C-alpha cells in the first residue's frame, strides 16, 4: 500500500497544472441554427455545461490531454469526438435530427464511449423510464431490460438474473464500488433503493477482466444521480401510490454546485402491505424501507473527487403460507431487518495526456432474521403463544426481539486504474483491484462461519482504433483466499477477453466478443451445515469445490437508421465446474437435505427485437423483442432457475404540447411462454400474458415543473406464477392488478 502511495505522490509532483478553456457553438445540421439547452460534457473529466439560447458554450479549467467530448439533446443524434487540449480554435459542432432516443455514455466499461462506439454490447436504461412501467421495486424494474430477470420472494426481495445466471455469478456495482451483502442466499435481495439512481447498465456475460471474481455471469452497474452542473441548484419532491399493496414511495432531493464544490442529498421512505392476487393477499409480503443518499464533490483543474454515502434500512416480511388477510404494513414473524452502509470515494488525477483513477469503498452489512421462538424477552409464554399462533401483527419498533440469525459483513474494496497516454491507435489501461472482507456471526443460528476473504487482481486492457474496425482486448490474473477456523483455501485464475466492432454495411454494425470469467466458491457452498429457514432446506457444503470457469462467445448484429432499428444478440456460454444444489433424498430436522455439487454446463440463447418509428409519425414507436435462454448440464438434465422465454410488444407515443413537455403514453403486452426445461427438483410453469399501460408528462405549476405518471400493470388481473418466484413451490400467485399514481415537483 505504501508503494502505491509513493507512486501517486511522484505522479502528483510531476504533474503540470494547466488551465485551459474551450468554447464553440452547437448547431442544427439541417437548419444551421444554434441549438439551445444542448448538453456538452467531458465524461472522463466530469465537466460540462448547457448551451445558451443561441447554442454557444464555454468550459473552463480543463487539464492538458486528449478527452472525449459528448454533445447530446433529445431529438438529435448524440455526437462524440476526441478533443486535444489545449485548443485555440472555436469548436463548430453540428447535430443531426433523429427520432431515436438519446445515446448515453457507457460507464461500466473502462473507455467511456457511446453505445454505438463500444466494442462490448451493454444494455442501458434510465431509472425514470423503468419506473414508468409500474415497477414497485428496483429488482422488479430491472426485469424490463432485455436479458435480465429477477428471482423474487414476494415483491420486496429480488435477485438479478442475467441470461440464466444469478446470485454470486452476477456482480452488482453501486456508487462505483462492488456491492457485498451476503448475496449467496436465494432470499437475500439487493438492499438498494431506486431513489437517487439515475440509470442502470447491464454487461451480459463474463466481465472478470474488468471486475474479477463473481462477474462470471455479468454485471449490473447502478449509476448514481449526477451532481448539479456548475453554479446550479436543483431540488425535487416525489410521491407514488400503489393500489394493490396500498403502499407508497416518497423521496426528496436537493443538490447544488459552485465553482469547485458540489453537494447532494436524497431521502426516501417506502411502505407496502401484503400484495393482492385475484383471490387473496399473500401473507407477510409487506415491507418498510428507509433510504438516505448523500454526496460531496470537489473539482479543480487537474483533480476531481467525490465521496458518497448510502444508508438503507429494510424490514422485510418472509412469506410462508396464505394466512391472515390484512393491509397492515408492520411485518409478521418471520422477517428480515437489513441495514446497509455504503461509503465510496472516486478520485481522478489528470496528468499530461494520462490520468489515474482511484475508487475506494467500505460496506457494512448488518443482516438480522427473526423467527418464532426468538421474540420479546419480556413476554410471558401465554402472550408469546397467542401472538405466534394467531399471527397477529406486531410493531417491532416497540418490542425488543432477539434475532435468530445475525451476520455482520464488512468489506473494504479498492480499484486503481492508470490510463496510459494514447499511443497511435492504442488506448490502454492498467490496474489493480482488491477486497478485504470479514463475516462475523452474532445470532443463535449460523448459516456460514466467521471468515476472512482477501482478493487481489491485476489487469491490462487496450482499445485499438483502426479505420474500419475497433478492437478491444485484455488479460487479468486474480487470487482469492478464504479463511475460517476450519478452512483455509486459495483460488487463482487467469482470464482474458477479445472483441471487435465493425460496420459491415451502411447502418449495420457487427460485434463479436469472446471472454472468459471465473467465480471462486462462496462460503455457503464451502462450509454450510445446517437448516436454511429462508429456503426450507438443510444445506451441506463441499470444501473440495473448484473454481467455476467459463468462456462465452457473443455475436451482436444491429441495423439502425432514422426510423427503424433491428437487433439480434446471440450467446453461447460454456461453464466448467458449475456449482449447484441437489437433494439427496434425506431429511434432517424435517428439512430436505441438499448437497453442493459440480458439473460442467452450457447456456445459450439471446435477445432479438425491432424498434419502428415511421416518418412522419416520429412520435409513434413500436417495439417488439424476444428473449430466450437454455441451460443444460453436460451429463444430462437442465439447470435450475432458468427464466422462461418471453415476447414483449410495446406501442409508445411521445409528444410535446404548449402546456405539456415529455408527454408519453404506452400499451405493453408481455407474453411469457411455458417453462418445461426444468431441473430434477423443479416443476413446469404454464404460459401467461400480462397487459400494462400508462401515460405521463410534465407541465408548469407555480413557475416550476410538475411531472405526473399514471400506469397500470396486470390489467386483466391474471392469476399466474413466474418460474423464478420462490413462492412457486407453495403455488402462490404473483401480484394481481395494480395501479400507480406518481407526482414529481422539480424546483
Question: If you had to describe this structure to a student in words, what would you say it looks like?
Answer:
The protein is mainly beta. It has a domain at 218-371 and 404-746: Maltoporin, Chain A. The chain is 5% helix and 54% strand. The chain contains six helices and 38 strands. It is globular and about 75 Å long. It starts with a helix and ends with a strand. The model is unreliable at 1-17 and 376-399 (pLDDT under 50).
Task: Furnish the topology, listing elements before pairings.
Layout: H1 2-13, E1 20-28, E2 39-42, E3 47-50, E4 56-62, E5 65-72, E6 79-85, E7 91-95, E8 122-126, H2 127-131, H3 138-142, E9 148-153, E10 157-162, E11 170-174, E12 177-178, E13 197-204, H4 208-211, E14 218-224, E15 233-242, E16 247-257, E17 261-272, E18 287-299, E19 303-317, E20 335-350, E21 355-370, H5 381-389, E22 405-419, E23 426-441, E24 451-465, E25 469-483, E26 488-505, E27 508-519, H6 523-527, E28 529-532, E29 537-540, E30 548-560, E31 564-588, E32 591-612, E33 620-633, E34 646-655, E35 661-672, E36 688-701, E37 704-713, E38 738-746
Parallel strand pairs: 1-7, 11-14, 29-32
Antiparallel strand pairs: 1-4, 2-3, 2-5, 5-6, 8-13, 9-10, 11-12, 13-14, 15-16, 15-38, 16-17, 17-18, 18-19, 19-20, 20-21, 21-22, 22-23, 23-24, 24-25, 25-26, 26-27, 27-30, 28-29, 30-31, 31-32, 32-33, 33-34, 34-35, 35-36, 36-37, 37-38
